[in-house]
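# step 3/5: fold
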Amino acid sequence: MILSLTRALFTVAAFCVFLVSCTSPLLYEETIPDFKAPSDKALCVVIRPMGIYGQYAPLWLDTKCVGGTIGNTITSFEVDPGSHLVMTKINLMSKTKLNFQSGRIYYVLMAAYPIPMVGTGTSLTPMPGSEATAKIEEEQGKIKFTKLNPEYEHKDLDADDLKEELDDYAEWEKKEPEKARAEAEYPGY
């Protein structure tokens, strides 16, 4: 009797762990909202068109997990004014550093691609507003809007992670000053 009760409790516990581990990190909506930045903040819109690499990729603003994508999704999050690092990672971290201004929308194209012997890399590229809105219009009905699932335990980065990524970005800035300047001067829309 005690053995069968123990087995039943173990089975229930294992099932609960299974259910928690199966919780999706994202919630999906079929309708893409009209993107409007609030007057006191900026809005960052990340577009990830369909590709063959559809793994989940969290998005961080500095250290805070603010969103995520899989292939063929779009997400958005509000940003306080100032310079911030937007980052994502499947196997390798990628980042863009933008100077956010209140009342503006910042469109970022995300791509995922194979890196032999490593896995899947990602890229984040600021997009001109007209290209972004055309891409969103083109993807209507095919692309889903995502937001973070509050029932999933999203992992923020710590201060050491952020310092490492800022140092890495500073090295890249030295190697690619024109690209870094283009990111820094990206005006938002």
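# step 4/5: annotate
The longest helix spans residues 2-21.
# step 5/5: archive (pending)
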